[in-house]
Structure formats: structure tokens, C-alpha cells
Amino acid sequence: MELLVCIKQVPDDSVTVTLDANGAPKLGDITPVVNAFDTYALEMAARFKEAHGGSVTVLTIGDESVVPSLRSCLAVGADHACMLTDAVESDTQGTAHLLAKASQKAGEQPFDVIFCGSESTDDSAGQVGAQLAEELGLPVITNVLALEPINGGISAKQETEEGYRIVEAPCPCVVTIVKPDYEPRYPSIKSKMAARKMPIASLTVADVEADASKFGPDAAKVRRVSISAPAQRQGGVKIQEKEAAVAVSRAIEMMAGQKLI
Amino acid sequence: MEKQGILVYLESVDGHPIKVSLEALNAARQLAAQTDKKVAVVLVGDDSAAAIAASYGADEVLTVAADGYQADAYTAILAALYERYDVSCLLLGSTRDGKELAARVAARTGAGCISDAMSLTSDGTWIRSIYGGSLQETVSAGEKTVVTVRSGTFGKPEQDTSRTAPITAESVDNAELKAVIKEAVKELSESVNLEDAEVIVAGGRGMGSAENFQMVYELAQLLGGVVGASRPAIEDGWVPRNHQVGQSGKIVAPKLYIACGISGAMQHVSGMSGSGYIVAINKDEDAPIFDVADVGIVGNVMDILPLMIEEVKARKS
User: Fold this and answer.
1) Tens of pLDDT along B155-169?
2) What is the dihedral sign for C-alpha A214, A218, A220, A221?
3) Domain CATH number, residue A97
4) Residues of B with CB below 8 A from A91's CB?
5) B52-92, pLDDT tens digit by residue?
């Protein structure tokens, strides 16, 4: 099957983001990485291809700065990479429109399954995958833990609040991926070297015939009014004792002093 | 339902609305008070929660027949009602299903979709967390919105069992199912009420194993509390995922929060920093959890926890 994985480059989510003097998020010093949920999506797509044949293409929206992220995907299972270079900042529905349009030009053949991470670690809206399916008029299965091919389609294990469901959809379809019970693979020196030489296709908004009224800041339905840092809590007493028993007694006294135990 | 009114999708399990759905109803009531609108609640499939919805403040209850949960069918139902009544704001609890329905209904109706709202400002804008809880943004989506409400942020509305509401059966044409749910399996038997807990004892990666994690359960039980966990402990399978606190889990504010072997990643801290009193146990003296702890014990949780359990037992007897 022909598989597409939509990825987003985000600031490393292990770093706390602060505000700069102008009150904007200070992201310049934070290493850009592929959104963690998208790395799960890519790993699942790569395993699916390895088991059942086909190819994996990664697609993202961004300028030259996203090339390293695409190369890192090429080093861990992607066969082709494609970027939509000249899109302006959009809300989730604008992004879904751009990805929908780009998905139709990103491969030589139509894609059978389009993978997205269930959410991004920066905005955490968790909307784009489902809205991409709506844009394309395709079936969607969200929060997928595992999937396998069935006659003409796929069968997926979907994570739910109480357990899981088995959901089936015909291809083409969209799936959004949560953390499965395995980790994404690491690149080898050889795969990194190979990825460096692989071509990265680039498309423009004009190439994909995106509708200018459907993306960009003016089309955005959700607008950020302001941004702030949450109230910081102050640290209290730090107990460092040689004897664990002494440390515990001190902590218990303090809790008891607050009438908490 | 009145035109341009507020609609809440109430998700129920065995005829009882789930808590985060009631939080969405509470958010809807706050919005209604600001905008002088009425709040309708829609029950799909199972209408047995109608009286409960009224008691929690629904002005009207809409019911729609459906044969069990199918995301495609429920999306079509909510989108149809959204358009039928020119709804100004549809609210849902931020469950996995709720978030999918919200995104899809917004895409179909052209509404703006706001995920995981944590509070409503007096200007009618919504506050949500970004960058793993490092920052908060205030967002507006204009006159037509779909909002999901994050668990543990709005609280349940006050219940008044004498309150009633008219019930209207709505009919919506059956939608074509593109993706079909074939089977649903329930794995998590217990319901975990972290939001209302007065004491939470939580464990993280530092607990080391499922066996060691039992100490977290023991201390929680002794203190009459509920067990919480950070993401690594969930991913390693030491504790079921409905115990997760923080980003992609619950926001909690107990009187006492004891963090055992939790380093204090922003994604966790943003879910528990509203706790009254925080005790942290971690062997790394530079662990960020100590920046938010009222009492931090630097030490191996394997040495500290057994002693703490003994001390608490001794005090109780």
C-alpha cells in the first residue's frame, strides 16, 4: 500500500517554553524535532510497509528549516519526503486544507492510508487528522494503537477511555496515531548517510491548488488573543538527610503540622 | 431549542453522564450567564440521563435515537443539530471521542474549534494550555464555535434534583458509516476519580517496576487517597492510563499531593501545580519537581516510601 505520513516540526517538548520581552514564545534556542506523535505514526507506517509492501512518504508544511526533520524521517523508514514550502501560518482547519491539497500531489500514486500523529506537542489541539479526513471526504480512525490490512481496507485497534475498539475502514482513509507499545527506531549511521542523499520534493501552494480563502491568518477561525505564562509555584523546604528515617520523620511532621495527615 | 443557543453533547456510560461532560455543561452555563442564552443538552442513543441533565442545569434536553456509538453517525447527528439550530457554541467533554467529534463537526459546519479549554474569561474567550503546559493562550473563535472542556478544570455544576427540563426528540437522517466500529472492549474496570480526591499519591519512572508501584497504592490507601501517575509509569504499564495526571491526563487539585519518583516534567507539573500541598520524593536533588514542592525529600524512593508507610501506619494506630 502507498502510505503518507503527515509530520510537524515542533520545539523539543522536554524544554519549558518561556516568553520573550515582547511577550512572544521564546523558541529560538529550543531544538526543533519531529512531533513525538508523528514519530509513532511514521514507525507504524514503516512497520506496515515492511510487513505488507508499498512505500512511505512523509509530508510537512514549512520552509527550509524543516529539511532536517524530513531527513531524519528518511533515516527511520520513510522512502520519500515532500514539503509544502510557501504556506503561511494557519489554524487547524487551514492546515487540514493545505495538507489535503498537498496529499493529492505528494505521491506518484494516490495514497491508500494517510497517517497523522493524534496531536502535536506544541499546540496539542488534536484536530488536524480528523479535519484532514473531513476535507478529503475520507473515513477516519482516530487514536490508533495498531493496524493491519483487511480486504480493501484496514482494521485498526483504537484506544478509548475504557479500553479499545476494533474499527474497520476501506482505503483510502486517514488514521491518527497514539503511542503504541513500542518505540520508534533509531537511525543507523548508514541510514543517516543514505537519507542525506535522498531527494526532497517541494511543492508550493500554487502547485497544489490550495484555496486562498481556506488557509492563512485571515481564514483562521480560531485566533490567539493573548499568551501568558501560568502562575509559578514557589518551592519550599528541601530535606537532605543521611538517614532516610530522619528525612521521613521531618516530612511527616511538616505534613502533620499542616493537618494533612 | 432556541436558535443561536448553546448545545452540550453529554456523553454517558450506563445511563450516567461522565464527569467531564458535566464539566462541559458547567462551562456552558457560565457562557449562558454571560450571553443570556439557554443551554440545551443532547443525548444520543441512550436518553436515560435526561433527568440528571436537567438536575445539573440543562434548560432543555434533546434526544436522538442511535444504535450504539459510531463516530460517523454521531458526527452527522451533531453537525445536523448544529446547523438546524444555528448553534453558537457546542461544548463537549475532552474525551477521545469528544475531541474527534468536535474537530469533525467544526470542519463540517465551518465553526472554529477550541480544544481542551480550561477556563472561560469574562470576555467570552477561552484559556488553554500550550507547549506542554509551559504557557497558556487565550483564544477566540468568533460567533460559531465548538469547544472541548478539559477534565478537572470546570468542575461539576451544582445539582438540584427538583429541576426539570422539557425533552424534545429530534430526528436526524442516518449517515453512511465510512469507518465502522466492530467491537468495543472494556479493559479498565475501575473508575478513577482524581478530580475530586483530597489526597493523591502519584508515582513516576523512579518507581522502577509494577511491583514497586504497589507501594504507591499502599500509601494512597492508608491516606484515603487516590493513585496518580506520570506518563512514563503509564507507558511502562505499571498503572492503567486512567490514573494519568497532567497533559493528556487529568488536571488535579487535591489538598495533598505526594509525588514519588516523579522528575517533574512540565507536562506533569501543569496538571498538579494547583494542589494545596505538594510533597516530592526524588533521588535527584536537581529534579524540577522540587521547584514546586512544599516539602522535597532528596532520597531513593525505595528507601523513603517504606518508612513513610510505616510512619503513617504508626500514627493511625
Assistant:
1) 999 999 999 999 999
2) negative
3) 3.40.50.620
4) 112
5) 999 999 999 999 999 999 999 999 999 999 999 999 999 99
